[in-house]
Design a protein that fits this description.
Layout: H1 3-12, E1 14-17, E2 25-28, H2 36-53, E3 60-64, H3 68-79, E4 82-88, E5 96-103, E6 106-113, E7 122-130, H4 134-145, E8 149-158, E9 172-177
Parallel strand pairs: 3-4, 3-7, 7-8, 8-9
Antiparallel strand pairs: 1-2, 4-6, 5-6
């Protein structure tokens, strides 16, 4: 992605101070979806990166609740891969694996349906933003519990100063560094 494209996408991001609690500066990806050309640039960049970096087929894209659901299915479709949601506790039917994580403003539990990933599947985990890395790490633990392997974590934005990438067990690709 060119610097011009990155700056254009950055200019579309919303910023909300003291949300969801005092002291947090929330970066809002939703305004980007008002510009279809920007969304297309993001999806094309991610798919091109994955195809250029990993010659073997990716079996599944795991999207984190909830903004990972916006990009994950689009990327999965273009890769010819399955899309698998990781949701907050109690939102998925059937037998689920769980992982607890600490985020910058609290603790939560993620779940994945135990039969959603095949043993040995090659997985990309996707979300809109990485901060401390807690939610992405939990998603990676869920992928492992299903017997699959995380090949890479993909984010639209990375808050570099929080060093969330350092806690993850696979390479990280982020389009925008803040």
């Amino acid at each position: 992605m060119t610097n011009h494209d990155i700056e254009r996408i950055k200019s579309l991001l919303g910023t909300h101070e003291d949300f969801p609690q005092k002291g947090i500066v929330f970066k809002d990806m939703f305004p980007v979806f008002q510009d279809p050309t920007a969304v297309e640039a993001i999806i094309c960049n991610i798919v091109q990166h994955i195809n250029a970096t990993y010659p073997d087929k990716i079996d599944a894209v795991v999207g984190l609740d909830a903004r990972g659901f916006l990009f994950g299915p689009l990327v999965a479709l273009r890769l010819g891969a399955a899309f698998v949601p990781v949701r907050k506790q109690g939102k998925l039917p059937g037998e689920c694996a769980q992982a607890t994580y600490v985020k910058e403003y609290g603790e939560d539990v993620f779940e994945i349906q135990k039969n959603a990933l095949k043993e040995g599947a090659k997985v990309i985990i996707i979300d809109d933003l990485i901060a401390t890395g807690g939610s992405a790490l939990a998603a990676g633990q869920l992928v492992q519990k299903c017997g699959a392997k995380t090949i890479e974590y993909v984010f639209m934005m990375e808050l570099d100063f929080l060093k969330g990438s350092a806690v993850l067990d696979a390479p990280v690709y982020s389009l925008i560094h803040l």
